[in-house]
Write a structure and sequence with these properties.
binds iron/sulfur cluster; 33% helix; globular; eight-stranded parallel sheet
Length: 473
């Protein structure tokens, strides 16, 4: 008998109970602790314990899994695939302990259009993470910490939090396609504006904030119902392409009286073309966020299977700016998976003018620190392995809206740790730059790097170590 495809299918038998559908009481997420990998077992590489656990989870849930943090895709390269080749005979190093290396970073001044380009004392700033994803105390701590070392933080989507504005000497105000919390007064109180067209953790999709984190205050700021999952739009209502985007940028310039630079942030997918379009549309600064970028919540398959690595995105973006004649006019910021000053220095050498850090800044606040162990355990995880930002039950008070958990986040202690971390990162960058003979961190260049793997060389065009030739297609 032919089925009517427009009628929902009903089982011709009594449906199974939820208890029968479950595979027992095991954790849904990932391979159970202690189960060795397929390599250790000598089992199937394709049907690894992880892959089987994933099928079981999907079969139980009937939907994709959601989690926070960043990609677990092991195929993504790390910055450890690149190494510096400091000055030896062909170049002269600077004296590491006696000569200085400038770290001043100016973003958005290249077109000569804005009165106050963003001047940072270091080439690192704090990435866009919303109030909602993070607690108010965490946001304030990031602002204080960034201010202490002369750099910037970013509101993220969801509006400008008063505590963050007060804490931040330099604040980048983000406008997402969903327009959550967008306010003309806040826009004029910002030191720079950012139009979001995507993010590295989940390019092509909007933000996700689960209902557990949509508190009364978050709901008020975003004009959304409390306790209900918030799924942001991704397609901007104000523009469909470069021509409309140029109009939008001009509107923002007029609204801010040509005072502050306009950033465009994108997830790294086709940066060679996307960056060219954003530059053509008039952006002062372009932020390219690689697939290693983190998030508060996302469908896990998007985290693991979308976007391109940060290192390849930087090279493609820089080449796009070079090809358009926009190097020097449009600043390039890189993000996604940056863990240290060493990673940041590699990004600068690959062609970024600055980097922004998200997950690493959260860790400096206390994310995954070994405290409140019982609460990690209650989430089914442990310090060092937590990726449960989506639950709102953050053991250390960073990614929560629960007032009791938030008390664990001391904004002043957190700020000090963030400031020290940023200072240490900057010391690492300058130490490497001086070893390479540079009196400014912005003089780092691709020639200062060599690739330790074919993959990294192919992704970036960086010469292979020793043979001094890039992987040749
Ligand atoms: S400790 Fe908190 S911020 Fe860190 S991953 Fe876990 S839930 Fe997220």
């Amino acid at each position: 008998m032919a089925h009517d495809l427009n009628t929902p299918y009903e089982y011709p038998f009594e449906a199974a109970s939820e208890a029968e559908i479950k595979f027992g009481d095991g954790a849904i997420e990932g391979r159970p602790a202690g189960v060795p990998s397929s390599y250790e077992e000598g089992g199937s590489a394709r049907w690894s314990p992880d892959a089987i656990a994933e099928v079981h989870a999907l079969a139980q849930l009937g939907r994709y899994q959601v989690r926070g943090y960043n990609s677990f895709n092991k195929q993504l390269p790390t910055f450890d695939d690149l190494t510096f080749v400091p000055a030896t005979m062909t170049r002269l190093p600077l004296e590491g302990y006696r000569e200085s290396c400038d770290t001043t970073t100016i973003l958005g001044g290249g077109r000569g259009l804005v009165e106050k380009p963003m001047e940072l004392k270091i080439p690192i700033y704090i990435a866009s993470m919303s109030f909602g994803a993070l607690s108010a105390s965490a946001k304030a701590a990031l602002g204080f910490g960034a201010s202490k070392v002369g750099t910037m933080t970013c509101t993220g989507e969801g509006g400008m939090l008063e505590e963050e504005r007060e804490a931040s000497q330099r604040l980048l105000y983000q406008m997402s396609p969903a327009r959550y919390g967008v306010d003309l007064d806040h826009l004029r109180r910002a030191d720079a504006l950012e139009i979001v067209v995507g993010q590295g953790a989940k390019p092509g999709t909007g933000g996700l904030l689960l209902g557990m984190k949509v508190s009364e205050r978050v709901s008020r700021m975003r004009t959304l119902p409390q306790g209900v999952d918030q799924r942001s739009t991704i397609r901007h209502p104000d523009f469909l392409g470069a021509d409309d985007m140029a109009v939008k940028i001009e509107e923002l310039r007029i609204a801010t009286n040509y005072k502050v630079p306009i950033f465009i942030k994108m997830g790294a997918t086709r940066p060679r073309y996307d960056v060219a379009i954003a530059a053509k549309a008039g952006a002062d600064v372009i932020v390219v966020d690689g697939a290693e970028g983190g998030t508060g919540a996302s469908p896990e398959m998007l985290l693991n299977h979308t976007g391109i690595p940060t290192m390849s995105a930087i090279r493609a973006a820089r080449e796009a700016l070079d090809e358009c004649g926009m190097t020097g006019k449009v600043s390039l910021v890189a993000a996604g998976g940056i863990r240290s000053g060493v990673d940041a220095a590699k990004c600068l050498a690959l062609g970024a003018d600055a980097v922004m850090i998200g997950n690493a800044a959260m860790m400096a606040l206390g994310c995954n620190s070994p405290r409140y162990l019982a609460d990690y355990e209650a989430l089914g995880t442990a310090p060092g392995a937590c990726h449960h930002c989506h639950t709102g039950r953050c053991p250390v008070g960073v990614a929560t809206q629960d007032p009791e958990l938030e008390k664990r986040m001391n904004p002043h202690a957190g700020a000090e740790r963030v400031a020290r971390y940023l200072t240490a990162m900057t010391m690492e960058i300058t130490a490497l730059a001086k070893a390479c003979g540079k009196s400014s961190v912005h003089n780092l260049e691709v020639e200062d790097l060599r690739a330790l793997s074919f993959q990294a060389s192919a992704f970036t065009g960086v010469k292979m170590a020793g043979i001094d030739r890039a992987f040749d297609w």
